[in-house]
## 1
Amino acid sequence: MVMAAQLGAVIRDPEFVQFHPTAIDIGRDPAPLATEALRGDGAVLIDRNGHRFMPDVHEHAELAPRDVVARAVHAQNLSGAGAYLDAREAVGAQFPDHFPAVFKACMSGGIDPRTNPIPVAPAAHYHMGGVETDLDGFTGVPGLWAVGECASTGVHGANRLASNSLLEGLVFGHRAAQAIHRAPTRQVQAQAADAPCELPQSVLQTLRSAVSAQAGVTRSAEGLTTLLSLLDALEAEHGSAPALIAARFLTQGALVREESRGGHCRTDFPQRAEPGRHTRLTLSDLYPAHAKLRKPEPPEMIPALPRHLIHALITRALEEDLGGRGDVTSLATIPADKNANFVIKSRANGVLAGQQPPTPVLIRSIAISPSPGASVMAIFLKRAI
Ligand SMILES: Cc1cc2nc3c(=O)[nH]c(=O)nc-3n(C[C@H](O)[C@H](O)[C@H](O)COP(=O)(O)OP(=O)(O)OC[C@H]3O[C@@H](n4cnc5c(N)ncnc54)[C@H](O)[C@@H]3O)c2cc1C
């Protein structure tokens, strides 16, 4: 992201960071994650006295959106009440079989999740913001495309639906490759560049702690201003290391966005401000000495689709998933000879993956499904209606 900014690219919405609500808090860095499937399976979030706190926060309790659960877990930890994921009843003895990776991580930290609640804390998980691109990954800077988590393509908004980074990699990777292939080739003169200055480990650690505290799950003008002063001091001492520049983009974006939206929560501006707008920052907005860089024009945004096209798209997506050919993502990522048994559990009628799908999706699923697996799904969905 910083390399692109140094070439003049716009960094869009750098303040939008998603936090995973339940990293296992056993002092490891990076913290291992307790998968959200545990909450889907019925594990509950409790404080150190065993009180289940999510029903007081959101009607969907533990199945509330990621940012809501992350903020609640954060608030519990800040207040000293503690946050624990309790899977003793919902998963219990089946933990090692059903969640082997999480089981191993817990045991390595001395916690047996079959008999003890797991201490949890939110952890930085995904950066929705990043290098502004059009739908082909083009940044507006001649010769520069950005794909993956570093890009801000516009598909995630202020939050991200789980697993949508696969979309970034596959779909936008493909589109960018095609665009690069179509682009005229240019002769470029290679130039030696100075290696970016590195921060000593201890300083990097100071920076990470400060960013987590002041620009993490919750933010305020006071905390963000304090953070900017720290960034000034660290830059004066260590030079403009990429980590400091990245932190400055995030902090500046969070400061100018005086509202709460998706993953960005300002305690001093708890409401959403309408209309929504993008933050667009370049290096010259942060460092006037770079003022010679020209800000690229914003790319053409995805226009709002008319209703009939949305319905056609839902039908196409469901035909792909349920229509007998198989789901392209599964076909692309799971070897054909891999077989496994699994159980799909719904916590309530009409709930899929913790959410209630919109009615048009349900109705079309039933209309489409000829395959055996799909009919089971259709029966389930029929019941749901
Ligand atoms: C714990 C965890 C679980 C996740 N689970 C899911 C999930 O279930 N589903 C999902 O869709 N997404 C998930 N995500 C998000 C997803 O993993 C990432 O968004 C995705 O891997 C990003 O891929 P990328 O190639 O864009 O970036 P990266 O994988 O970060 O690759 C960037 C590469 O660039 C290299 N690099 C950096 N700087 C330089 C430099 N200056 N010079 C040269 N190389 C450099 C890095 O070393 C790295 O190899 C998860 C993320 C985390 C942290």
Note: The chain has four domains: 2-15+128-182, 17-126, 201-285, 307-384.
## 2
Amino acid sequence: MKAEITSLFKIFFSRTYKHVIWEITNACNCSCAMCGLWQKKPSSVDIRTAEKLIDLMHKNNVIYIQLTGGEPLLYKDLIPLIEYIYRKKIIIHLATNGTLLTEEYADKLKKAGLKYICISLDHYEPEIHDSVRGHKGCFSKAIEAVRILKDKNFFLYSSSIINKYNYKNLKTFIRFVNSLGISFGACFPYPDFNKNDRLSNLSDNDLTDAIKELIELKNKGYNIANTNAYLTDCLRFVEKKEARYPCLAGSRIFGLKIDEFRTCWMKKDNIFNLETGWKEKGINCNECQLACFREASAFIGLEQHNRKELFKEFLNFFNN
Ligand code: SF4
Ligand code: SF4
């Protein structure tokens, strides 16, 4: 564990590193209430194009790639893709709904070089999780995936969007997730991804209460993966105060939608691709607190301004 923390610290303290969140496919076997992707025509990155994109990222100091979707486990070339990224010594993180994982698939992922995974959990009551995900049985499959991945020693945490079903019961929810032996990772509600979203419309008061509770529970020692820096900025966002850790989307953190680099998922701009070459375009924006971009921004902000706190967050994550 100490070796893991030390090697990550060395990597994160190289000041120019970049993060990419890569939607390798938009195909998905769930139809979540807060997400519009499953309504779109499925498409995926071609593996040869993917290799060229990885070369481009490697050349431009990307040290961390989060593979997402859609559901990345549906991507037919996931194993060769991970192997290729691993060979470039880039840290790989996978975000999954956990419904397609088997012992065999987990073994292949591990062998290919994957270590870090977050798994979607929306509620501790199976029926509510399933209704959020749009399919019966998602909860039991996700819990089984947690068991498999824990057994195989992956670093694991939940990806849990604050929604109208869980915001009043966060303590019970966190206890449940922690009882599975994993850290609780909160995600600020999605911006307007699905126009018919029946889940994410929490009032500012409800969100304020929920985030304050998360901060309090983290300070009491509950196993919560989010940094205090991100949670505090979520609170400041709801209170319409300036962020302590500005969003670095487009300059240090990028969304890669299949094969087009974007500032983030909300900005529909394609800022560069294989043909144009690497082109950064930092912007001054505080329109959302989407965890993939804002948690990473807070992380880089801590690395620049408060390494002591970052070290504490690392210890907290790996020791829990
Ligand atoms: S939130 Fe994730 S699992 Fe749910 S439909 Fe969207 S891509 Fe699929
Ligand atoms: S604040 Fe949100 S919308 Fe604005 S650039 Fe960052 S991730 Fe995109």
Note: The two ends are 11 Å apart (CA to CA).
